């Protein structure tokens, strides 16, 4: 859930497409999503807040999650292959990572629930996977380019 000034919002992925796989782990892109308002009774509407709230909501809605965003339920795609090989099995998704686009947006719900069951770590960038054949030998090449939102984030 995301909260600006008044209501809470939920970004719900309603349709996904598999864009590749790494070591048997599916990597998905977003086909369609909805921004759902979750009203909260403890928040009182104020006209000044309403204008700012609408501005924030419009800014969030302007982000096209169907382009250049990808995720995996089981593979920490936000980390390098070297880190994933060295990591302990079952370590979970490292949200506090340089390449998790929605780390700040989901921080509150992850802390309240004390888990990441209700959230997915989105990576902003590019994921391409192609099969090539050289002299009859088939192999897969994967290119992952990730963008970091860290320059505009205060820690």
Q: H/E order of the elements?
A: EEEHEHHEE
Q: Beta-sheet strand percentage?
A: 35-45%
- Kindly, what is the distance between the CA atoms of the first and last residues, rounded to a whole number of angstroms? 20 Å
Mean pLDDT: 84
State the domain count. Answer: 1
Q: For this entry, what is the oligomeric state of its chains?
A: single chain
Helix-strand makeup class: alpha+beta
Query: Widest sheet: strand order?
Result: 1-2-3-4-5-6
Give the low-confidence spans.
Answer: none
The count of helical stretches stands at: 3
Question: How is this structure best described in words?
Answer:
There is one protein chain. The protein has 155 residues and is α+β, with helices and mostly antiparallel strands. The protein has one domain (2-152). The chain contains three helices and six strands. The chain has a six-stranded antiparallel β-sheet with strand order 1-2-3-4-5-6. The longest helix is centred in the middle third of the chain and has 15 residues, at 47-61. It is elongated and about 65 Å long. One of its GO terms (molecular function) is phosphatidylinositol-3,5-bisphosphate 5-phosphatase activity. It is a peripheral membrane protein. Keywords: Hydrolase, Membrane.
